[in-house]
């Protein structure tokens, strides 16, 4: 068994194929956790698991649509059958959703954003709770965003889903408190993912103007966080943090 802050733990990480989710899965494994990595793309997951197991850590892949209840059930079943249970759930699966003023948005795109970002989070939490209760406790981290609080024109769908994740996490924390399960929503920071890189490459005009200008200013000031730094925040959340029912932000962790 590998040593580390998460030695002996079993962690499910959704959205593990790319970006922050991939970095979190890698870092959890480095810290000793057995990782069940979930994402839609089987090829992304296979590459991740090969990288983790290649350095002597433990990981398996479960590909599927997080908006489908069967996917969360398969994630938990894989954790129990392969590693004996589940102690940690990190919900990082999300999409950016449609960008534009409200009257321009397609209802189907709006609904799909809620299906993945909110319903997917709910389904994963719902599936893992019985197993965590059986084991006497656990840690759930649901990824929100600064846009759960900050107003950004053109981002109503994404912002609304992340605000919903924050409030959902607060309610679940109270429901699960007596079972020893800590639940928090987190803002992982502005992280240098492909999505952020794509935004930085856009011309600052139209509906994206204020966002692109803000990202460029943050980049110039060295305030865009690397994925590895954000992943270390998640390790702290599931190993040392005792808060529950909070909206925790990486800025506070890095001070």
From TrEMBL:
Keywords: Oxidoreductase
Name under which the protein is recorded: SDR family oxidoreductase
GO MF terms, alphabetically ordered: oxidoreductase activity, acting on the CH-OH group of donors, NAD or NADP as acceptor
Pfam families in the cross-refs: adh_short
Similarity comment text for this entry: Belongs to the short-chain dehydrogenases/reductases (SDR) family.
InterPro entries: NAD(P)-bd_dom_sf, Sc_DH/Rdtase_CS, SDR_fam
SUPFAM superfamilies documented for this protein: NAD(P)-binding Rossmann-fold domains (SSF51735)
Species the sequence originates in: Microbaculum marinum
GO biological process: fatty acid elongation
EC number: 1.-.-.-
